[in-house]
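Hey, quick one: can you model this chain's 3D structure?
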Amino acid sequence: MVLSAITVAAFVVVNESKNIKLIKETPCENISGVKADVKCEGNSVLVMPYKGVHESEVRMAGEWNFADYKAVSFTIENLDSKPLRVTFHIANTDEHLVRSKSRRSLPQTVGDLYYLKPYEKREVVLEFPEPLQHPDVEATLRKSPMRYTPYSSEFGFASYSADLTAVKHIVFQGCYLALFETDHENGWRVSNLKALHGKRKENPAEVKMSHEEFFPFIDQYGQYKYNEWKGKIHSDEELQKAREAEEADLAKYTGPTDRNKYGGWANGPRYEATGRFYFKKVDGQWWFIDPEGCLWWSHGAVRVTPSSAITPLDNRREFFENLPTEGSEFEQFYYTHDALLKPYYAARNIYETYDFSSSNCYRKYGKDYKNIYAELAHRRLQSWGLNTIANSSDKDICLMSKTPYIERLEVRAKEIKGSGGTWWRFMDPWDPSFKQNIIDQLKAREKELKDPYLVGLFVDNELKWGEEWFLAATIAKNPSTLIGKHELIKHYKNKYNGDIKALNAVWGTSFASWKDMLNNEQDLPEQSHADLVEFNDLVIHKYFRNCREVFNDYAPGLLYLGCRFSNSNKKAIVIGAQYCDAISHNFYRLTLEDYTQPEGIDKPLIIGEFHFGTRDRGPFHHSLIEVDSQEERAKAYEAYVRSALEHPNIVGTHWHQFSDQATTGRFDGENFNVGFTDICDTPYSEMVKALRNVGYEMYNIRANAK
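Sure thing. Here's the predicted structure for all 706 residues.
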């Protein structure tokens, strides 16, 4: 919860004499930094991140009893030119230090996330929840895969079961929202951290319910039962009324009038028409050129599919009201799936699911809901000023030859053990299975590769590149069966003229022979990292070169749109730019005004993912970037896309995602308010207005930004 400075001042004045000035009253030796130097300055702490890191922390250790306190207040100040996300925790265990990056509701923790623009200063009040009457309800919710639960949305990601009589850790975690690791000018500061004495805010009525009263808490439409909001569906009749209202809106707004069939700028200048999409720099700005030779800018959404709200049922059927019985016409939605995401469920041993979004479309459109939804998707995109179906979308919708689309493939080959990553491990680019897997996937897309509406392909998603030595160091401790490890040995055997002792002297190792090094599966000493950077570069080159060569041989002329970077190191971006037709980056932040490419690179950039969310209508989690309301979400969308249109390198933005996620979470627990439509397929009117505001004018905005 974020309050204005005036409200904060009024809040703090109550029982001022009993408030605890936490920084001032904590010995400086109990305040420490992680990946940062910290400096205690009276009632504030200055945090200076180490060179070249994104994330840093300041930790306060002590023993505090907040039984008679209602909240904490503090001031956060971003002293740097990069946007900053700060995660705040009060906890009586150190589990939050391990799990906080998952952005889940954590046991024994009170906290929240805050986003600061460059040089922004913000005053915050975070309220404490009352102790629970029925802690078993929260315990049941926490066993399931949900990022936020009904219990955590009221007080940030506060756990009602947190023991605030025995607090031992107060932690601020700062993360700069930058494209790659970079140095920072002035760090960030926390000041005036106080525990505010007084009576706590009463818990919501549903939080006082017993297990028998609370469950089930999700209705037959997949919505939370115990709250009301604008647009909530209570009956099939209301679904039909929502459909009729949208039909009237779509009839009124049929789309921009200055577009060709690909959504290109029909009124703009013309260039060579090749029948495929390609890139061209025009008057200092990068553009796509569409198959008819028109300037084209990609304005789209990820996951255009009726199956956006599939949720696991394993061990939590009691959450859901009126699940279909065997033989019911709705039984089919136990078996519908999203083709791209299905492997993620299997990898997590999730066997039972229900597709609330598709079942709601069935209620709304009838037995032919898939075809009706598909036709409607194209009408919506055109009406809203969008011209791209982005990756992870329904293939049948893409192949209707009505809206350009971008797909992605993910390499499945010999894994590099220990390479981590959010989704999959890094694959060994020297193993023959690497290139062969890409070849097989391209051959399976024969129809798409001939389709002029296919803009291009991403390969992979949010790989872990790590530090500039990470991949090489990981390969060096893999089993000897990894082909990439043999390449590493060959490289350094050549560099050190076959003298293992010379390598040992530099790396701080004690290998008896090169065979001994090949068989090693232990971490290497830190002093080896500087030397490992050069082989790490070879790994990156090999990865991107493989992709480029396969595209050249099996999909000539098709755009290779990169790997959808996420907080990569700079070296990976610089090397990748040598092989990709465009750089792609999933970039969650408020604006792109201060985006710059690494020195020496001038390439088109596609924003593969971004979004904003809030907690005011249904979903428990606000998404990766929180705003205060649907109105603010719409404003943030328009500002972000405008900043992209005004940047000479950016050639498109893809919103993640077309519809809200399941209220009770998908395979990894994400249950974000991120849709243009909600779980009942009703468009958010505020977002639609913002889409049209920027989408209808996007070519004029970009052309006038020169």
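One thing worth noting: The first helix runs from residue 5 to 13.
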